[in-house]
Amino acid sequence: QVQLVESGGGLVQPGGSLRLSCATSGIIFSDFAMAWYRQAPGKQRDLVAAVTNNGATQYVDSVKGRFTISRDNSKNTVYLQMNSLKPEDTAVYYCNTKVISRTYWGQGTQVTVSS
After folding, report:
1. Adjacency order of strands within the sheet including 67-72
2. Looking at the DSSP assignment, which residues form a beta bridge with residue 48?
3. How far is it, in rounded angstroms, from Cα 22 to Cα 93?
4. Mean pLDDT in the chain?
5. 79, 71 in Cβ contact below 8 A?
6. CA distance linking residue 52 with residue 94, whole number of Å
7. Cα separation of 98 and 78, whole Å?
8. Which of 10, 27, 37, 56 has the lowest CB atom count within 10 Å?
9. What is the pLDDT of residues 77-89, one digit of tens each?
10. 29 contact partners, CB below 8 Å, separation of at least 6
11. What's the number of CA atoms in the CB half-sphere (13 Å) around residue 100?
């Protein structure tokens, strides 16, 4: 059974930082790409960042230079380091992976950027 469990969200002031973690089980983690998505109230869920099984990364333009996605294959965990946070980064952040033809999501973690 594939499970993705996010943690690390919270309330932070503009300009602050948070580090999200997504612990996985039930897959051979090192074989699969991982991604972070986010969904703000009333909006669709959008891709934020992704990392391939080989470590190549991609980011949506709005977070380039501020967010860093990384993975630790020894811990079956993917991270999202978020710096210089802005109010518009407020959303529920979800971890994601695709195994063959099936997509898996975590339960999400709330990130709120507000003074």
Report:
1. 3-7, 18-25, 77-82, 67-72
2. none
3. 10
4. 96
5. yes
6. 17
7. 14
8. 56
9. 999 999 999 999 9
10. 71, 73, 76, 77
11. 3
Residues 44-90 pLDDT 10s = 999 999 999 999 999 999 999 999 999 999 999 999 999 999 999 99
For 55, residues 6+ apart whose C-beta sits below 8 A from its C-beta are 71
Q: Are 9 and 111 in contact (CB under 8 A)?
A: yes
Q: Is pLDDT at 34 greater than 90 in this prediction?
A: yes
**Class of residue 22 by CB neighbours under 10 A (exposed 0-12, middle 13-18, buried 19+):** buried
H helix or E strand, kind and range, residue 109: strand 109-113
C-alpha–C-alpha distance, residues 81 and 101, integer Å? 28
pLDDT band at residue 100 using 50, 70 and 90 as cut-offs: confident
Tokens of 9: 């969200």
Question: Beta-carbon neighbour count of residue 77 at 10 Å?
Answer: 18
- Predicted confidence (pLDDT) at residue 10 exceeds the cutoff of 90: yes
